Amino acid sequence: VLRVIFVRLKPTSKYSYFYSSFFYSIHMLIDEVKSLRTVVNPDISKIRNIGIMAHIDAGKTTTTERMLYYSGYIRALGDVDDGDTVTDFMAQERERGITIQSAAVTFDWKSHRINLIDTPGHVDFTLEVERALRVLDGAVAVFDASAGVEAQTLTVWRQAEKHHVPCICFLNKMDNLGFSIQSIRDKLKANPVLLQTPIGSGKNFTGVVDLITNQKLIWKQKSVGDDGRAYEVKPLNELDDAAVLQEAKGARSALIEQVADLDDEFAELLLNDFIENLDAVPSIKLQAAVRRVTLARKGVPVLLGSSLKNKGVQPLLDAITAYLPAPNERNMTIQWYKDDLCALAFKVLHDKQRGPLVFLRIYSGTLKAQTAVHNINRNSIERMSRLLVPFADQHVEIPSMPAGNIALTVGLKQTVTGDTIVLSKASAAAAARRAQNKADTGKKRGEHASVILSGVEVPDPVFFCTIEPPTMAKQADLENALNCLQREDPSLKVRVDPDSGQTVLCGMGELHIEIIHDRIRREYGIETHLGPLQVAYRETIVQHVSTTDTLDRTIGEKRHVVTVELSVRPAADAGGSCQVEFEEQTVELSPEMKEAVENGVHSSYLQGPLLGYPLQDVSTLIQSVHVESGTSLAMVSACVSRCMLKALKLAGGQVLEPVMSLEVTVGEDYLGSVLGDLAQRRGTVRDIQSRHDNKVLLATVPLAEMMGYSTILRTLTSGNATFSLELDSYEAMNLQDQNTLLKRMSGLL
After folding, report:
1. Which terminus of the chain is more solvent-facing, meaning fewer CB atoms within 10 Å of its CB: N or C?
2. Which terms in the GO cellular component ontology are assigned (predicted)?
3. Listed residues 487, 507, 533: the one ending a domain
4. In a domain, 3, yes or no
């Protein structure tokens, strides 16, 4: 009966929006939990690929859990503290109450299909955010409204900007609206477009006023266990609370003016039709203008709520479908492939029963199960046995998936993160020809280079330590485990020390290494031993030096003669990288010869002259290369490498240490103790801010001094402080600290 009433409800009714919301809620209550097999498969214009990103503990996973519940895909609300949320399914995530790896879920909301990725908020797992944003079309940035923009918020926001991802801001734990809006404006340099005003705040937060439609959305919690599914929607009128009414009117006028400044089409509409009465602007016109502003990344819509209290999540879902782009609006259509398959592998998981599971973002064509596909990066043909719809750690098999979606595949045994998957070699060749014809230029090498999708940028590790199996009999098992984990997590590097023969783990932080160690024990059953954590320093040079070298070697009956002249100089403007340049007289070198020279230079950048750490901020100028006929390219690389080694030693070395941005939130009573401890760690205080009853300490401190800091901070403050770290830069060590490090590394200390 309720369904009949819901269907027959007149859309012109004054309260149609309220009644439709009410009966939609009743409809959801009487239905069973939805199956993934029933997820709508709409036109590409109604698909939304989004990510949830934020600082740790801002409420990303809680918000995701509510989205799944209100959309009907889970029966009960999970809680991060109880360890029973859908997207935090790893044992380590449930024990620690944090997100460690990104999790993908698929669900529908009011005729739209939403592919959502819940990302970690801890700096050690920033790669998970990076590779998610690489393939997403939009993002929801969740903020703790009482704290505003925090350290990791800045990091994920910069990542979204790098990939030109349109964003929506959700102020969670609704408390201090003005403070949060100002921090978005000041710290993120963004243009917040406020779409709602709060009704109450903190514990008294009961709902919002929708400035687009001029309606009140009220959540009346009748009991502690109220799930927030049902809420009232009422038009704003003169009988409402005067303060709420006045704030809403002022905010709507400000919204209209702000959008008019950002969108020319809307400004023209106002000037022509509504110049004398801005309140008469139709909500549909205002919403369309906000959407254009969002897609152009001129502003970011801001919505309010409290996910833990089950308030404000349904309007957030409506905003995702209304303002964030569909796949065909992101200018990411792979035009060279036309209707042929083209997809990017952005994540790999290992399943004990099914083997490697590869996540693919499909950009064009249709992905089908039981078909062979071509991996351009590996130049290999692989057979995809099964195709799945992702839902955290539970998946449903399907026969095919169209463009614009995110799919999970079984059977791609060679594919790794960043690989481009296409229909066939012929398809890739045809796409390359189209790209070549369009550019009207030929390429002698790398025919498919222009049609390979850009991969995922992997940050350099900052910590390393040795890892040893319990017995030599377990060495092969450990190597297999590390190979699988590296394929899952490209930010984990594994190498073998050439002197000691020990296996060395390189990771993004203490927690990262700790999680890897725990996963080896739990998932692979190997009780490994970790050596002490060490910092991954870098080196640079201090002088400009020119040098020359000649290699003359006879191998068998062939003589190889190469003479190289080059110079190296410090390059502070290199942005942390190393460069190779060629003087004009070297332009006659063939492309193959230039590549051999570059290989010799880059191999020398891997080890600095002091301690063998990688080099940065160095520029090399190749002045001349003379090669006698018959000399192999390998000999050219060897000669360049030897000449580089000589130049680097003459240029003098300088150790660079990673310096972290530290943010500590602590009660004023403990501030003195924290500052005193920081001074002993060679820290530099940049600012001390007030946040409610707490102080927020902003500082920079060398990473080497932050070992075990969480335990020390907990002791100093009796557990009344939190902190976050982010890599700020690599800075030159002073002479005394550098000499101490050199002695320690050489075994004298």
Report:
1. N
2. mitochondrial matrix
3. 533
4. no
Q: What is the pLDDT of residue 171?
A: 95
Whether residue 220 is predicted with pLDDT greater than 70 in this model: the reply is yes
According to the annotation, is 352 in a ligand binding site?
A: no
558 annotated to bind ligand: no
Q: Are residues 395 and 304 in the same domain?
A: no
400-416 burial: b if 16+ Cβ within 10 Å, else e: ebbbbbbbbbbbbeebb
Whether residues 699 and 617 share a domain: the answer is no
Determine the pLDDT at residue 24.
Answer: 44
58 is in an annotated binding site: yes
Please give the pLDDT value at position 448: 42
Point out the domain boundary residue: 305, 329, 353.
329
Could you read off the pLDDT of 229-255 as tens digits, one per residue? 889 999 988 767 888 889 999 999 999
173 labeled binding residue: yes
Quick one: pLDDT at residue 8? 38
Amino acid at 701: V
Does the annotation flag 174 for ligand binding? yes
Q: How many domains are contained in the chain?
A: 5
3-class SS shares of the chain: helix, strand, coil, % to 5: 35, 30, 35
The response to whether 120 counts as a known ligand-binding position is yes
Determine if residue 122 is labeled as part of a ligand binding site.
yes
In this model, does residue 665 exceed pLDDT 80? yes
Closest by CA position to 252, among listed 219, 231, 280: 280
Say if residue 597 is in the same domain as residue 672. Answer: no
- Structure tokens that stand for 599 in this block: 């290989």
Residues 619 and 505 in one domain: no
State which residues form the domain around 355.
342-440
204 and 91 together in one domain: yes
Lowest mean pLDDT among 191-200, 447-456, 645-654: 447-456
Instruction: Indicate whether 110 belongs to any domain.
Output: yes
Shared domain check, 398 and 310: no
Distance CA 539, CA 617 (A): 9
Which of 14-28, 95-109, 419-433, 645-659 shows the lowest mean pLDDT across its residues? 14-28
* Domain containing residue 593: CATH number: 3.30.230.10
CATH label of the domain that carries residue 399: 2.40.30.10
* Distance, C-alpha 37 to centroid of its chain: 29
On whether both 348 and 226 belong to a single domain, the answer is no
210 carries a ligand binding annotation:
no
On whether 59 is known to bind a ligand per the annotation, the reply is: yes
Mean pLDDT of 313-317: 96
Instruction: List the CATH number of the domain containing 522.
Output: 3.30.70.870
CATH number at residue 281: 3.40.50.300
Residue 57 annotated as binding site: yes
Nearest one of 246, 238, 153 to 197, comparing CA atoms: 246
Nearest to 126 by CA among 65, 226, 54, 40: 54
pLDDT digits (tens, 9 = 90+) for 153-184: 988 999 999 999 999 999 998 877 888 999 99
Task: Tell me whether residue 61 is annotated as binding.
Answer: yes
Residue 593, burial from CB neighbour count under 10 angstroms (0-12, 13-18, 19+): middle
In a domain, residue 455? The reply is no
Whole-number percent of the chain with pLDDT over 90: 58
pTM assigned to the model: 0.82
Same domain, 211 and 307: yes
Q: Rounded to the nearest 10 degrees, how much is the dihedral formed by the CA atoms of 95, 97, 99, 100? A: -30
